[in-house]
Specification:
This is Aminopeptidase N. One of its GO terms (biological process) is proteolysis. The chain is built from 12 helices and 24 strands. By secondary structure, it is an alpha/beta fold. The strands form 6 sheets. Strands 6-5-9-3-2-12-15-14 form an 8-stranded mixed β-sheet, with no helix packed on it. Strands 1-4-8-7 form a 4-stranded mixed β-sheet, with no helix packed on it. A 4-stranded antiparallel β-sheet has the order 10-11-16-13, with no helix packed on it. Helix 6 crosses helix 7, helix 7 crosses helix 8 and helix 7 runs antiparallel to helix 10.
Length: 504
């Protein structure tokens, strides 16, 4: 099955290349495509241009949920364009392209597709500046019956995966087009406006209002940007490695607050541990935000966001490890298509196993065997394929847990030294860009000198419980041995699935 997936992915890439080549070769300018052809979300992203930078300047009123502002997009056309699309769901007031007013239309088949026709045709390779003014009430805007914008008691959260940008800024919304960001948000003095990267400053804009300014200097995917407005206790410090660290805690956490702090304040320690495995931390800042009303945790770049429920039983280092492992797997090296989600979740989940071993709470081998033994063969869990789960199962527990077992099976097959070499080479080679599962398999086979179809087919692309466990023992032999005692940290790891619907 993995081989068929490879052919399909290659077919998509070939067809996209053909479209771009035909567009470039054409004598007449043509519209940019309304999507990049992602197998799960074909309408995501837009063809014909590459975004370099987003400058997002907003004003938000928590009491009315009114959001207004301007996003300036610096981009480069990759083809001669008569028009191009932006992914955006809010009401657009005006668009200017290269300082001239442009015509704006909505695609009637997809309300998130904003079609922009500039006053003059756009030449490939020539920089373009797009200025979009807009205003709306994001919580009232639904796309297919859903809104990713979440109002809270004191503000709002623009945090979600795979889509969130459409509810607060226009973009080329696909992980294959990463950019740098400046985010500036004016809010009432009694609330904070939090986002990614480094806080470059706060300034009073008028009586009762403060503007918060953030900068992300490393390439960032659209779904990894976030905005959190509300009553937060914001704590700034410097990590032992010299990076700025900013953590924020919802003022309403109550008795959960100490457990949240006992976990999130250890982020620099977690990063140091992960650097030993994955190589240097890829970004300019660290931190975390703990809030209410989210329902999951997400690896928003440089500063993960956690729902308070993760800490309702006490400290929870597994979720902090998971989201920070994503800073390498998913944030620095982004997926080439949403069907490649295992590259993000499998290794972030396996990092939890490795932290458990580091903390003396059960080895990775013990956790892998316990997890394998604890799920019956007839459980529907084994019918979801981590290597291509489908959009409907993209965040299924199997993508995380069977994905972690796949990572451990790879480790046991190639050995520890080669396993670490594969991970570090992968992260170094594709840092700041994106890559596919096929790219990972090819690299793993090259560095190990081993044909790995059996490992990847078994754990990622074959339905049913594998007959051989992640540590290499057959299911029958595992059943005949003395039952493995539940590792201490396994309750913490499984809790993240039981208590909350998603752990990204």
């Amino acid at each position: 099955m993995r081989k068929r997936t490879r052919v399909y992915a290659a077919g998509v890439a070939t067809s996209l290349a053909a479209v771009l080549t035909a567009t470039t070769a054409s004598a007449a300018p043509a519209p940019g495509t309304p999507g990049v052809g992602d197998p799960y979300y074909p309408g995501d992203g837009n063809g014909g241009y590459d975004v370099i930078h987003y400058d997002i300047r907003l004003t938000y009123e928590p009491g009315t949920d009114h959001l207004s502002g301007t996003t300036t997009i610096l981009a480069t056309p990759t083809a001669e364009l008569s028009s191009f699309n932006l992914d955006f769901a809010l009401d657009v007031e005006s668009v200017r392209v290269n300082n001239r007013p442009a015509r704006v239309d909505r695609d009637p088949a997809d309300p998130t597709e904003v079609v922009v026709t500039p006053a003059a045709e756009l030449a490939p390779g020539e920089p373009m500046t797009v200025v979009v003014r807009y205003a709306d009430t994001p919580s009232e805007v639904e796309v297919n019956g859903f809104t990713a914008w979440k109002r809270t008691d004191t503000g709002a959260l623009a945090v979600d995966e795979p889509h969130v940008a459409e509810w607060w800024y226009p973009s080329n919304d696909h992980p294959t087009d990463k950019a740098t960001y400046d985010v500036s948000v004016a809010v009432p003095d009694d609330v904070a406006a939090l986002s990614n990267g480094v806080l470059t400053g706060q300034s009073k804009t008028r009586a009762g209002w403060t503007r918060w300014n953030w900068r992300s200097a490393e390439p960032q995917a659209t779904y990894l940007t976030f905005l959190a407005v509300g009553d937060y206790d914001v704590r700034s410090s410097t990590t032992p490695s010299g990076l700025p660290s900013l953590n924020a805690y919802d003022a309403g956490l109550g008795e959960i607050r100490p457990a949240a702090e006992a976990s999130v304040e250890r982020t620099p320690e977690v990063v140091e541990f992960l650097e030993e495995l994955f190589g240097p931390y890829p970004f300019e800042a660290q931190g975390g935000v703990v809030t209410h009303g989210l329902g999951f945790a997400l690896e928003t770049q440089t500063r993960s966001v956690y729902d308070a429920g993760f800490f309702s039983r006490g400290s929870n280092m597994s979720v902090v490890v998971h989201e920070n492992a994503h800073q390498w797997f998913g944030d620095s090296v982004s997926l080439g298509a949403w069907s490649d989600i295992w590259l993000n979740e499998g290794f972030a989940s396996y990092a939890e196993f490795l932290w458990s071993e580091h903390a003396g709470e059960g080895t990775a081998a013990e956790l892998a065997q316990y997890l394998y033994d604890s799920i019956p063969a007839d459980d529907p869990f084994w019918q979801v394929l981590p290597g291509d789960p489908g959009a409907e199962n993209q965040f299924h527990a199997a993508v995380y847990d069977r994905g972690a077992l796949a990572a451990h099976a790879l480790r046991t097959t190639v050995g520890d030294e080669v396993f670490v070499e594969i991970l570090r080479t992968w992260l170094d080679t594709y840092r700041g860009t994106h890559a596919t599962l096929d790219d990972f398999v090819a690299l793993a086979e090259e560095l190990s000198g081993t044909q790995l179809d059996e490992v990847f087919d078994t754990w990622l692309f074959t339905k049913g419980k594998p007959e051989v466990g992640p540590n290499g023992a057959s299911a029958d032999s595992a059943a005949r041995t003395t039952a493995v005692t539940e590792p201490e940290s396994f309750r913490e790891i499984s809790f993240t699935h039981e208590q909350l619907a998603k752990r990204h």
